[in-house]
DNA sequence: ATTATCTATAGATCTATAGATAATGC
DNA sequence: ATTATCTATAGATCTATAGATAATGC
């Protein structure tokens, strides 16, 4: 029993941390990172602000956990993207406004001076562009039908995904995010010789 | 003289306000809107925080002035966009990281709940998409070479501009924003029959 | 008179530290 | 013993109000 109890204790603690991170994701979606208070996060999991600091000793430590959660989020597909999965991902995202809002808010904040998530996003985009280029190369070879290289196309692909998210978050009624993204993929796949 | 003096007074007051707005743009670029303190803005124009409140009675009032400044910023070209001017605009933006950072940070924050700039951005994007669609129609008619309508292309065009800005702000060395944007315009202009 | 600024200050927050108390697990 | 939480609190901010004082312009 003792071994199992010890393990249960660890598991329970991990669950508590996960619960806190989930609450933090929500609060950041609502108020951004700078606007998110530890008190608001704590309240959501039924703790005092000081009780929360037992699990994450500083606000920044909590942010780190939030960003690791994000890495988890697309860890599985990120191993090796495929174009058809990408469209599905955008469709899936359209059903998860909360998480998209969290990371869109964080991305926006991250361009400000000394923001604690800045290095994370800078590194992340280097990786994501590389992944996307690799995916495009697997799909099309060294040149897309339109003549661009995968490396030059990758930033555009990433930009469209992010940019559409902002438009969609601000006005979901007016913006068909998955539809627009599929349009873009069609654009990429189109070939000068397709017509004849 | 009296009439002229009165006018000078008004002009001087207007100049002071403009100076404050410029300082606010800077501080927002550095810290976001929520993170920007009136004290920091005031200091930059050599006023106390309370002195600043003489010109803008609340923090939100100052934000309104900042957003109006933005409308000014692209008022001239916005009247009627042209595709070639659009590429130039992106090139121009690449020389103005400050202003781009200000509005990228604001856009990011604006998706959070109850943000005072949210309605502004929602409305703005409705307009910008309409302007872009109009421009695309003027350039290509009711269908682009790739078959998409101007209305379906407009959100993509806007998304690419915004998305590239984030990637570029985070990592200007790695991202050639104007070049990538020109690539995208090429993509739009390409015709299935071009090859033959 | 009006405009521009300042000092003083109320009232809200917010993060983080210190240290007590209760519960859990060897 | 260690882990989980709590109360108390220091120390920083921040916005906005009240009201004084100096300068400007009729």
TrEMBL record, chains A, B:
Species annotation: Streptomyces lanatus
Location of the DNA-binding region in this protein: 37-56
Coiled-coil zones: none
DNA-binding recorded as keyword: yes
Pfam families (alphabetical): TetR_C_6, TetR_N
Highest taxon of source: Bacteria
Keywords: DNA-binding, Repressor, Transcription, Transcription regulation
Domain HTH tetR-type: 14-74
Name of protein: TetR/AcrR family transcriptional regulator
């Amino acid at each position: 029993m003792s071994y199992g109890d010890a393990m249960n204790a660890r598991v329970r603690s991990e669950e508590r941390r996960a619960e806190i991170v989930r609450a933090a994701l929500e609060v950041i979606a609502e108020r951004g990172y700078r606007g998110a208070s530890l008190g608001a996060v704590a309240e959501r999991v039924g703790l005092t602000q000081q009780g929360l600091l037992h699990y994450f000793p500083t606000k920044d430590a909590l942010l780190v956990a939030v960003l690791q959660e994000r890495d988890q989020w697309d860890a599985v597909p990120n191993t090796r993207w495929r174009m058809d999965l990408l469209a599905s991902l955008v469709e899936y995202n359209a059903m998860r406004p909360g998480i998209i809002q969290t990371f869109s808010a964080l991305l926006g904040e991250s361009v400000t001076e000394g923001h604690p998530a800045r290095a994370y996003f800078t590194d992340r985009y280097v990786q994501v562009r590389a992944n996307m280029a690799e995916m495009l190369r697997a799909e099309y070879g060294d040149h897309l039908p339109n003549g661009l290289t995968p490396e030059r196309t990758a930033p555009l692909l990433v930009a469209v995904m992010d940019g559409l998210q902002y438009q969609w978050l601000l006005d979901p009624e007016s913006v068909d995010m998955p539809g627009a993204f599929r349009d873009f993929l069609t654009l990429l796949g189109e070939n000068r010789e397709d017509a004849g």
